[in-house]
Amino acid sequence: MQYQSFLIKYAEIGVKGKNRYLFEDALVAQIRHSLKRVDGDFVVSKESGRIYVTAESDYDFDEVIEAFKCIFGIAAICPMVQVEDNGYEDLKKQVLSYVDEFYEDKNFTFKVNTRRGNKKYPINSEQINRDLGELVLHAFPETKVDVHKPDVMLHVEVRNKINIYSHTIPGPGGMPVGTNGKAMLLLSGGIDSPVAGYMIAKRGVKIDAVYFHAPPYTSERAKQKVVDLAKLVSKYSGPIHLHIVNFTDIQLYIYDKCPHEELTIIMRRYMMRIAERLAGDSGAMALITGESIGQVASQTMQSLAATDAATTMPVFRPVIGFDKQEIVDVSEKIGTYETSVLPFEDCCTIFVAKHPVTKPNLKMIERSEENLEEKIEELVETAISTVEKVWC
C-alpha cells in the first residue's frame, strides 16, 4: 500500500508570531514549485500549523521524498494516512488497518501518541492512547508496548480530519527561500563557494550568482562546470540567475600595472566591485563568498579586510570557520563535490604570484590601484555591459 498523504512539519517558522502565515505561505509555494518537477498530481494545503500534501495520482515515493529533502523550511516529512472523523469506533478500525497494512512483520514494540487539535473530540488523548494500545495488542499478539523506547511511535492527530502516521523523515530545516531577501554569490569552480551559497539559501535568502572567467586562459569546459554547479545549488535555492563576467582584460591590465605579489588581492577587490554593481541591479542586498579564514593567502584576516574595503555591501562568509574537511563534507552531502573537483582551470588560479602578500596594507593596495586609473573604469564598464546571463 502506498501513502497518499504527507504531513510536512516545520520548526523555526512556528515561532514567528503574527507573521508566521507569511513564512507558511512561502513554504507552501516552495513545495508546490518543487513537486512540479516530479511525476504525479498533488494538492498542497495548510491548516492550523500543519501543511499537508495529498497525492491525487500515482507517484514515485522516493522521488517525492528527495524533492522534500531539498526544500528549506521543512523540518520533517511524515508519510501518513488521513481519514475523515466518522466516530470513535471508525477511528479504531482505521488504526488497526494502518498497522496491518504498513507493518507486515508485527514483531515490534510500540507506543500510541495522541494529540487532539480538535478539543471538542469526546474522548481525551490519554483514553485514546489506552484504548488504541489495548486494541493493537489484542489484534496483533506479536506486538508489545514500550512507553520509553518503542520501535514504532504510532501518532494519532485528531483535527478536522484524523492523521495516522509512524514514520518521520528528517528534512533540511532552515527557512523558506525568499523570506530573508536576496544576495549575490561569487561562484567559482571550487568546493567552497557552492557550499556557501547552499548555507545562505538555507537561511531563507534567495541567491543570484556571478562567475568570473578569463578566456582563452580559462576554457568553455571550466565555464560549463560553474553552470553545472549553479544548477546543483538551485535544487535547494530555487532558480539562480548566473552572471558570467569576462574578466580577461581586467586581469591582464592588473597583471601589467600592479605589483605581482598584490595581484590576487587587487583582482578580488575588482571582483567585489563588479559583483556589487550586478547585485544592485538585481535587487540583491549582500554578497556571499566561500572564503575560510587562513585557507590561502587571500583569506588571511588582513586580506579579507582589504577585500571588504572595496565594497559597501555586507559580505556573508558562511564557511569562514570551517576547515577544508568540514566544507568537503557539506559539498558531498548536497551533491556538488564531484563536479567541484573536476580538473578545469579557474581564473583565480591563473596569474597567481609565487609569493603573494599575506598581510596586505590597505593604503599600499590603494596606492597600487592608482596605477590602473587610466582605463580600469572603462574595462569594468565593458565587463558589466557584456555580461552573459544564464538561468540555472
UniProtKB/TrEMBL annotation:
Residues the record lists as binding ATP: L186, L187, Y211, F212, R268, G290, Q299
The THUMP domain, residue ranges = 62-169
The record's InterPro entries line, in alphabetical order, gives: Rossmann-like_a/b/a_fold (IPR014729), ThiI_AANH (IPR020536), ThiI_fer (IPR054173), ThiI_N (IPR049961), THUMP_dom (IPR004114), THUMP_ThiI (IPR049962), tRNA_STrfase (IPR003720), tRNA_sulfurtransferase_ThiI (IPR050102)
Question: What's a single GO BP term from this record?
Answer: thiazole biosynthetic process
User: GO: which molecular function terms?
Assistant: ATP binding; CCA tRNA nucleotidyltransferase activity; tRNA binding; tRNA-uracil-4 sulfurtransferase activity
Per its UniProt record, what SMART domains does this chain match? Answer: THUMP (SM00981)
Query: What's the superkingdom here?
Result: Bacteria
Q: What class of enzyme is it?
A: transferase
Mind telling me which CDD domains this protein's record contains? Answer: PPase_ThiI, THUMP_ThiI
Q: Name residues in a coiled coil.
A: 362-389
Name the EC number(s): 2.8.1.4
- Subcellular localization(s) per the UniProt record: Cytoplasm
Q: What is its main location?
A: cytoplasm
Query: What PROSITE patterns would the database entry show?
Result: THUMP (PS51165)
Task: List the HAMAP family hit by this protein, alphabetically.
Answer: ThiI
| NCBIfam families in alphabetical order | tRNA uracil 4-sulfurtransferase ThiI
Q: What does this protein do?
A: Catalyzes the ATP-dependent transfer of a sulfur to tRNA to produce 4-thiouridine in position 8 of tRNAs, which functions as a near-UV photosensor. Also catalyzes the transfer of sulfur to the sulfur carrier protein ThiS, forming ThiS-thiocarboxylate. This is a step in the synthesis of thiazole, in the thiamine biosynthesis pathway. The sulfur is donated as persulfide by IscS.
The similarity annotation says: Belongs to the ThiI family.
Among PANTHER family, the record links this protein to:
TRNA SULFURTRANSFERASE (PTHR43209)
What is the name of the protein in this document? Probable tRNA sulfurtransferase
